[in-house]
Amino acid sequence: MSWFQFATRHRAGIASIVVLVFPHIMPFTALAVNILIYGLYALGFNLVYGYLGLLSFGHAALFGTGAYLCGIAVVHFALPWYLAIAIGVLGGLLMAAMIGVLAIRTRGIYFAMVTMALSQCVYYLFYQAVDWTGGENGLRGINVRAVNILGVKLDFIDPLTRYYVIAAFVIAAFFLLSRILASPFGAVIEAVRENETRAKASGYDVTATRLITFVLSGGFCGLAGALQALHLSIVPIEIMHYDTSGIVVMIALLGGMGTFFGPMIGAAAFLMLENLVAVWTVHWQLIVGAVFMICVLFFPAGIWGTLISRGKR
Amino acid sequence: MAGLSINLIALQLFTGLALGAIYVLFAIGLSLIFGMLTVVNFAHGAFYMIGAYAGVYIFMLGGDFWICLILVPLAVGLFGLAVERVLIRPLYGRGIDYPLLLTFGLSYVMVELIRIAFGKTGFPFDTPENLQGAVNIGVGYFPLYRLFVIGATAAVLLALWLFLEKTSFGLIIRAGARDPQIVRVLGVDVARVWLIVFGVGTAIAGLAGLLAAPLQGVIPEMGSTILAEAFVVTVVGGMGSIGGAVLAGLLVGVVVSMTSLFAPEMGKVSIFALMALVLIVRPQGFFGRAGLMS
Amino acid sequence: MKQTRSGSMTRRRLLATVSARAALAVSPFRINLLQAQEANIKIGFPVPLTGPYGTEAQDQVRAAQLAVAQFNDAGGLNGRKAELVVRDDKLNPGEAATRTLELVEKEKVNFVVGSLSAAVQLAINNVTKERGIIFNSISQSDAINEAADFSRFTFHEALNPHLTSGAVGRYAFSKFGKRVAFLTSDYAYGHEMVRGFLEVGKAFNIENLGDIRHPLGTSDFSTLLPRIQALKPDILCISNFGRDQQIVLKQATDFGIKQTTQIIAPLLSHASRVAAGPQAFEGVIGGCSFYWGIEDKFASTKAFNEAFKKMYDGKLPTDYGALGYGGVRTILAAVTNAGSVDTDKVIAAMEALKYDFYKGPQYYRKCDHQSVQSVLVIKSNSKDLRNSSDVFEVIGTDEPNETNLRTCSELGHKA
Predict the structure, then answer these.
(1) Is residue C194 located within the same domain as residue C306?
(2) Among the four residues B237, C16, C53, C205, which has the most C-beta atoms within 10 Å?
(3) CA angle C405, C200, C249 (to 5 degrees)
(4) CB-closest option in C4, C92, C149 to A238
(5) Does residue C171 sit in helix, strand or coil?
(6) Residues of B (128-187) whose Cβ lies below 8 Å from C
(7) CA C376 to mean position of chain CA atoms
(8) Residue C268: HSE in the Cβ half-sphere, 13 Å Cα cutoff
(9) Cβ contact (<8 Å) for A30 and C216?
(10) Which of A7-16, A60-69, C212-221 has the lowest mean pLDDT?
(11) pLDDT(A237) > 90
């Protein structure tokens, strides 16, 4: 058995082990947490981009809604942290359903543009709801000092504890996505991407499949957003900006779209690159832009995608 | 609020059309490149910014605005040719995502290079002397320079129309957009056609940047705002349709202007709301071909 | 097959290295090592080195480095040196929060000074106050004084919008007329400025012709200006910042608004004036916290200018740069006075501080830790410039006075 087959068979397990060791090899723990969260965000995005084949430029709205609803639950309703996370996920699902219903009819570049336009409208909505979201100043005061898990009280201010609590959610999401992709529904998703007409002829409801996948994606992104809100204890309005939608495209592409580990590896590569270069020079955008161009030109399958094709050979 | 009058509304309408002219000028290059090459050029804003900086540089060397009007599009167009030849050509046939993402990275690089070369602060750019001041247009006073921009946009549109409709090269371009396969079979070097289209598109972006410089000054980030707005224009007009870009550009200008009169804080979001509305009702935009890029 | 095996060997070795490092990271040894030698006093300094305010941020860093160098040259804290740990917050509150976590959790900084936007300073403040770290903010915000965001670890060396607009309003409303129109960037900073202007305007019986709000990051104001002209105001009050301000002043000039109307802005920044040029800023009146030209009036300003020039090849400090200096210098002065970096002792020393470090006398008000200080009213210079930094003329000064601030109870602080 080659390493590749081994890795594929135990993909969720391997990912979990890496996630556990991860904070000790990163420059600082908050970066490791950000990588997990952006990896999860990209994982949700990749469900639509990589597996369904639709390029969305509006995922910031899903990520942001999760973050804001989780934050609002803590700040304005003083709900416990786990309920706040649940509300964030629900928010991501609902927002995805609303955007999805409007956008799902369009294709290709138009889908990208409709999702971008709708997410800009969502941005504006949250921007104007100052009493709830803090507007441009951002939502502050999502201060969760301790979390209770099965009667054990954990200090959420401690960086490593915070990391492992968040990592537990990310790992759970990994297993869930792995199950979904391995299920019959996962096969339908890929069938729709590969050949819409044939999938339709085989009796599958293409539009419904697209919509459900988009909504599922919203759930994962909403979870990522909720965790981000708890991690940083603030939600900045920038989370809804289309830059946040663009970053996730970069991450998915860098890691390898349509692959299981690609998004997480892309998030690690992107954020670490940005972190390293930003400490070294203020001209980090030059390096990041150049690396990105090189990836597009020479490694179109992304880091993980390239490794996979080597592994299969 | 007080102060609303028929004159003001008329002036506001005119202001909207003038603003639309700038959108049009920026968006036709974008639309041209997309229509012919199916490349969504995310670096278009960076080319626009480079145009403004080329103007600043020519001023430093002692040139004036009128020399810039000729040299800037040439210089930016030549740069565009190089970009197409070296960076974009290898990506043809790989789907629309890759050129889009490549130009996205390219825009980062271009903006940062300009920051390194010219600094982060930006430069003031004075309105050319004989175009300063405001003139009475019947319903109120309007800056002369903005009238000049409208005229320049009209001139570029006319030249582009003549080039595409009345020259044999234009004929090849139009044919190449419709069916590159057939054109290639007929013995036409399609690669060269695409090269030139990209050059022309970026040259117009450079010119737009130069014309915008006296309106708002010059900074490295100036291309990013207009890029988002121009995407709206091209999408509402129908990707790849030049006529659509013109109509949608003017419409977006008027929508912004009228929103500014009644709900000014919504000026920016009105553009996106318009786009969402148009696309939900008519997914291919005003003049876009249905099914393109699906 | 052979390849695979050698591959797994390397992986095993890698894993061994990784776990060794992990063990080291959690071992009590390392902590002992750190405590054995007395570490530098670390001041975290998150500012937006990249992005539109990169120039201002660079000035902040320069001036803060000067404050650190002066502290170290004077012997530090009984020989213990200070050190500035600079991070790029990219003008993004999320990035700022992440960087602050890095500064606190990994760099173990003793204090944090920095920020160049309201949203960023509130984000940093939320992280530091949770962890009991003193944060001295050096950019404008009204919210940071209010009870909801304030904590006893929070200090505000910069002006706040209420103070700034009050000073400019008091100057302008008595001179240029009563009919006032507002053009405001639609976010907290803009709204706070307008609130301040209207508050001070009551005393002058100004007539509010309307507040037109534009989206943050507007690149064309042509659609808003005709309507403002139709209102025929005596004074147009433009509350926005940076690029928005540069563009609107330029376009207002083109539309001929200045011929009939006096334009005032709460804050005129040095870098904006340089970027937009003299034509756009001609005749505009506004406020600022510091201008190098007040060196004729204050010995501290003279000393600061000279030290800055000496360190940076004759360059003069700017408004935002001076704030970087003030923010770091006050903390280090408090450390000296307290004789310790202990948080509670430093807070007490900060509260007791009466200082004149670069712009005349200042002190931190007890209830909200807002620095009570002067506001300069300035006008753009276009002729007879003495040097490349000679861009403003000081035409008025609002002397430091607690009554110009909102009261402690207004801010929600219990007496």
Answers:
(1) no
(2) B237
(3) 105
(4) C92
(5) helix
(6) 132-134, 140-141, 143, 145-146
(7) 16
(8) 31
(9) no
(10) A7-16
(11) yes
Which tokens sit at C57?
Answer: 């941020």
- Any domain includes C28: no
Chain C residues close to A28, C-beta within 8 Å = 101-102, 105-106
**Among the residues of C174-318, which ranges form H helices?**
188-204, 225-231, 243-254, 270-276, 278-281, 299-311
Is the Cβ pair C222, B134 closer than 8 Å? no
Q: With an 8 Å Cβ cutoff, are B141 and C243 in contact?
A: no
Give yes or no: residues C329 and C279 share one domain.
Answer: no
Q: Does B224 touch chain C (CB under 8 A)?
A: no
C43 in a structural domain: yes
Instruction: Give mean pLDDT, residues B164-170.
Output: 87
Is the Cβ of B209 closer than 8 Å to some Cβ of chain C?
A: no
Give the number of residues written for chain A: 313
- Work out the minimum CA distance from B126 to partner chain C, whole angstroms: 8
> For residue B285, what are its two tokens?
């935009």
- Distance in angstroms (rounded) separating the CA atoms of residues A190 and C304: 67
Residue with tokens 């210079």: C381
- Contact (CB<8Å) C52/B5: no
Which residues in chain A have Cβ-Cβ distances shorter than 8 Å to C97?
232-234, 236
Instruction: Please check whether residue C334 lies inside any domain of the structure.
Output: yes
Domain containing residue C54? 36-159+290-373
pLDDT of residue A313: 64
Asked if B105's CB is within 8 angstroms of A110's CB, the reply is: no
A292 contacts B104? CB cut-off 8 A: yes
pLDDT in tens, B86-138: 999 999 888 777 888 899 899 999 999 999 999 888 888 988 888 988 888 88
- Looking at the structure, do residues C241 and C186 belong to the same domain, yes or no? yes
Q: Based on the domain organization, do C369 and C252 belong to the same domain?
A: no
Average pLDDT over every residue of C345-354: 97
How many Cβ pairs closer than 8 A exist between chain A and B?
A: 109
Residue where one domain finishes, among candidates C268, C288, C308: C288
Residues C179 and C326 in one domain: no
Residues of A with a Cβ under 8 Å from any C Cβ are: 2-3, 21, 24-25, 27-31, 34, 130, 135-138, 140-141, 143, 145, 157, 159, 228, 232-234, 236-239, 278-279, 282-285
C301-321: per-residue pLDDT in tens?
A: 999 999 999 999 999 999 999
> Is A24–C18 a contact, with Cβ atoms under 8 angstroms apart?
yes
CATH no. for residue C351?
3.40.50.2300
